[in-house]
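Put briefly, the fold is written as integer tokens. The lines below illustrate.
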Amino acid sequence: MRIEPRDASGKRLARVDIDERTLPARVQVPGLDRDLFPRWEGALDDAGALRRCVVCGCDELYTRKSLPQVTPFIVILAFTGSVVALRGYATDPRVFALLAALLVVDVLTLFLARRQLVCYACGATYDRLRIARYHRRWDRAAAERIAHEKPDLPSALAVETPQTDSPQETP
């Protein structure tokens, strides 16, 4: 499994590859001076699929598709191909063959898109793992409900905020 933890401000820190079969107690995150201690208690279901976030312990996860980086280029080519077809140049066999090849590449891009799990609370992204059927796509109601709760981030991911020692005035 690959985890991309985020700090309290939502910035992606690094990519960490973990073997979920060994359940490591400590994971070193590149770029951090402290280690991450995954919360494995109840995180995996009986089939070995991730049930809850191992970074913050949140029960709410959603799925999304991770499209390959070539996708914007293919979208531009598809738009150009549709303009060419609308202008009437698609009757040329070479142009028709190029448009058919573009369609095949576009469909392959959708099939090559990987599914990921994302935690609503801390934003950690999980990739290259078994995803259970009970995980659904992003839900606005769940996102708003969890946005009001403060995620329980490990100390390794918490952003250090300077404390001010200014006395409060009493009336």
